[in-house]
Amino acid sequence: MQVVRVIVAVAGGALVLVTVLSVTRTLIIPRARRGMVARVVARGVDGAFQFLVRRVRSYEERDQLLAGQAAGFLLALLATWLLGFYLGFALLLWPQTHDAGIAFRESASSLFTLGFVAPNSGGTTALDAIEAAAGLIVVALQIAYLPTLYAAFNRRETEVTLLDARAGSPPWGPELLARTRYGMRTRTDDLPAFYSLWERWAADVAESHANYPVLLRFRSPQPLSSWLVGLLAVLDSAALYLALCPSQERYEVRMAVRMGFTALRQIGSAVGLPVNVDPDPDQPLALSYDDYLAGVQRLLDVGFPVERTAEQAWPHFRGWRVNYESLAYAIAYRIDAVPALWSGPRRWTSEPIPPRRPATRVASDAR
Known about the structure:
Elements: H1 2-28, H2 36-52, H3 59-66, H4 69-97, H5 100-111, H6 122-167, H7 173-178, E1 181-182, E2 185-186, H8 191-211, H9 227-244, H10 251-270, H11 289-301, H12 310-321, H13 325-335
Antiparallel strand pairs: 1-2
Helix pairs in contact: 1-4, 2-4, 4-5, 4-6, 5-6, 6-8, 6-9, 8-10, 9-10, 9-12
């Protein structure tokens, strides 16, 4: 009987230790690594939401349902931690109370600081005090965790919202360049500043989303917006600009591409996706050549000043896109991002949504 008590106590201590490590790794240590508990909870919550939306064919309806995925994960993770403490301390109390029912009642009383069960010895008093502190600390840490997440979310979404006017909704790389057209002239002088801004945005997203992967589940307020599709559109526009206009090459454009695929690699590593840090620039793209030609034609239609033909620019564009395409597609598939042009497949069969463009409205007396 004594051996059984020792085994039960060891199991309870191990469960408490695993829970403490999970809380520490998730809420306190900013590192791009998730513990076992967080991974299991993430798989369970993601699976539940995928089951919930499996019959929904409309993307807008799926997006509305999936908007609760981040909250579901946070609540499930908190419940898992509290359950871990509850069971772990109950197993620690069991050998001292000699009654499983009393041990579990006392554990619940201490964890939620209800005080309806009094300890019967000095050992149980100490365990009750530690468990009460653990319950309060984990809830307080989770509450303090939320402002950090929402601050990162707000920083991310500000630039994504601004991108709507530049690149359409959902955003598309060729559309971004095409909309630099101003009146009857093409204006590109502000592009270096724009790409410099997105270089810093990508660095911010890399740091926040790799350290706090739950941010990947926070969806944009508008169904046709997505931080990932926005980043992909910016990277595609930069790759097209570098491939089609070699004389206009600027440091800011190249750095935006580099920081963009670096961000995707850091996020991919954090969520367990395979990352190729040195892709072959000659390997084929998932993007078809016909889709590429359609994007270039969009630029030609608005008179964008190109210096190479589409055929001449293709190897250069492919050499840039190979650095980020596979990871962008994999993350877009995982989070079910809006199915925009040039953004890869999704879990559900759906046609890519082209960018919506505002109608040209001119007052009758100004025509």
